Each structure stands twice: as C-alpha cells, then as structure tokens.
Amino acid sequence: MAKIMLDQITTTITTNNSSETQSIGAALAAFLTPGDFIALKGDLGAGKTEFAKGVARGLDVDPSILVTSPTYTLLNIYKGRIPMYHFDLYRLAGDNDVVDLGFNEYFSGDGVSIVEWSERLNAELPQNRVEITFLWQAENSRIVEFQPFGERFIEIVSRISS
Length: 162
Ligand code: ADP
Ligand code: MG
What we know:
By secondary structure, this protein is of the alpha/beta class. The chain is 30% helix and 27% strand. It has six helices and seven strands. The structure holds adenosine-5'-diphosphate and magnesium ion.
C-alpha cells in the first residue's frame, strides 16, 4: 500500500522558455545510469524534444551534434558519457510493432532510453523510470509534470525540483 502511494507522487515545474526546459533535462541527466528509462508524454510541440536536447547536453553528447525528433527513424543513438537512445514512437501503430522491433534490448541495455510518445508502447515499461508529461500552457510556457517510479527516481525528481 505504502509503495503504491510512493509511486503516485508527482512533481510539477513550469518553464517559461525552451532553454529552461532543456536545463531540467540536463539536470536530470546528471543522475542517469545505464538502463534508465525516461518516458516523455504530451502533444506535438509540447516540448519533449527540447527536453531530450537538454538530456543530451547533460550526458555530454558533442554539442555540435543536432538532437532532433527521430520521427522518421523511430530511434536516434547519441554517444555521450553513456549512450542515449532517443525514440519517437509517434508513428507506431499496431500492438505487435514493439515486440517485433526488439526495443527491450535497448531499454535494459548499456544506455539511457528516452522515449517520446511512450503511450504507444503496449509493452510493460521498465520498473525504474520517470514519466514526464509536457503541457502547453502559453506560447513560451509549459507545465512539466514528473511522475517517478521506484525509489531511485523518486529521490532524483525531488533533487531536481528543489
Ligand atoms: P515535441 O517534441 O513535444 O513535439 P518540441 O520540443 O519539438 O515538441 O517543440 C517544442 C516547441 O515549443 C519548440 O519550437 C520550442 O522552441 C517551443 N517552446 C516554447 N516554449 C517552450 C518551453 N517552455 N519549453 C519547451 N519548448 C518550448
Ligand atoms: Mg518531438
């Protein structure tokens, strides 16, 4: 019972421009270790990719490398302090795609998985993860809502939000 309650803690941050959203991503990246899973949810233009850019920066991905939404490829891999597997599942449709594409190899692998449109995954998400929902509030303002799962991410979210 207590555990279920812990898993339902959410923390909300409002950002007022895209670089603030990137900065939260960079702050989160400092705590990441191989096998971590970050689910990014929210409508098109909500700020998921901006956040992923910040994570890349925080993972020491070469700043000259452009981080873009991998909409047409499903996955972009960036080499940083640890590898960053950046998925965009917007185009994913059927139930079987996920299993067939073998995403779990990445999710439990040697890098960090950052997944835009994670709602499209019908597979069970890794237990240690953070789900981050982006809500458009105004032209330059977004609500960023963190829902951590597992004690480690609960601790991480409390650190980056204080
Ligand atoms: P998504 O990946 O969710 O579809 P993107 O991150 O690609 O969205 O795009 C978000 C757009 O909104 C960018 O053009 C960005 O410059 C703009 N923007 C304005 N304010 C913010 C903010 N506070 N946080 C994130 N992006 C913002
Ligand atoms: Mg995107």
